[in-house]
Amino acid sequence: MRWFWVDRFTEYVAGSHAVGHKGVSLSEEHLHDHWESYPVMPNTLIAEGMAQTAGLLVSELYDFKELVVLAKFTRLEFDGLVRPGDTITYRAEVGATKEVGAQATVVGTVGDRQQARAEIFFARMQAGAATAQGLPSRLFDPEDLAHWLQITDVFKVGRHEDGSPMTPGDYGLPSYA
Question: Under which EC number(s) is this enzyme classified (predicted)?
């Protein structure tokens, strides 16, 4: 994944829910390409931030060892605009899980205002099935994944459902200081 639309996590409970944040800055190039004289965060990128927040939760259900891909938005609504200086807060919750994947609900807010709501289904591509179709067995290289989780504070705030802290070693990932 080339672009990350979540800057940090302030809450993460494995298999349950997560809270991620994206600060929107006037220095971001895409704001000037959307509406030239009125910079706003494009809704497509907000949807991507929602998918990244929820997708991380779903991928963790499979210990980050299987390819998990966004299959479809079963619901997606937007209210209002996100402007430079705003912070979008994504609250994602894992819903129904099945052998073929999992569903998640995400609400995006700016302050107290709901900005977006989505229901997203993520397909689970088991390693053997993925490689048989010429796909990688996982989305991220383990070192890249560990680095991203570290810099977004997942291992700082993350907890397992029993309350114990999440660590890179829980998933066979390298640790960064």
Answer: 4.2.1.59
The CATH code for residues 8-166 is 3.10.129.10
CA dist., res. 72 & res. 56, Å (int): 16
% of the chain residues with pLDDT over 70? 92
Give the DSSP letter of residue 165.
Answer: B
- Give the three-state DSSP class for 61: helix
For residue range 5-34, list pLDDT tens digits in order: 999 999 999 999 999 999 999 998 888 776
Active-site positions read 34
Compute the distance between CA of residue 62 and CA of residue 47 in angstroms, rounded to an integer. 23
Residues 6+ apart with CB under 8 A from 169: 175
CA distances from 10 to 13, 41, 49, 80, 154 (A): 10, 22, 15, 24, 8
Contact indicator for 66, 125 with CB cutoff of 8 Å: yes
Domains of the chain by residue range: 8-166
Structure-token match 């993350």, residue found: 158
CA 122, CA 174: separation in Å to the nearest integer? Answer: 26
